Amino acid sequence: MVNTEDLRTAVAAHVDDNWSQTPIKYDNIEFNEPNKSPWVELKFLPGPSRAATTLYNEHLGAVNLVIHVPHGAGTRIVYTYADQLGALFNRQRLGNIRFKTPTTVPLGEIGEWFVVQVTIPFWVIG
Known about the structure:
By secondary structure, the chain is of the alpha+beta class. The chain is built from two helices and seven strands, in the order αβββαββββ. The radius of gyration is 15 Å and the shape is elongated. The N and C termini lie close together (about 5 Å).
């Protein structure tokens, strides 16, 4: 059986160990948005499970990295960060977690921020 919190912790540790360009906001952890500087929100999205074999299940999910840059700052930095964050997971293996290719989607202007989301699907056999 796969432990969802163990998967989330492994993903968060991977980002912590490999990303220093901006502060990172995690679910249900107090965070103060930086004033007029970029930041990233990490969303761990566990998904459905199904029988992969008679002995193992396949667990699906996704990692969402939501990049916020100040409104009016242009798009160069947000898409540079999107490419760099996507590369952290692109077709990588993290223990028993296997990541697919990232998808980058602009979410547009939200409040004082221009926001882009990078989604990386994953699967785990366990």
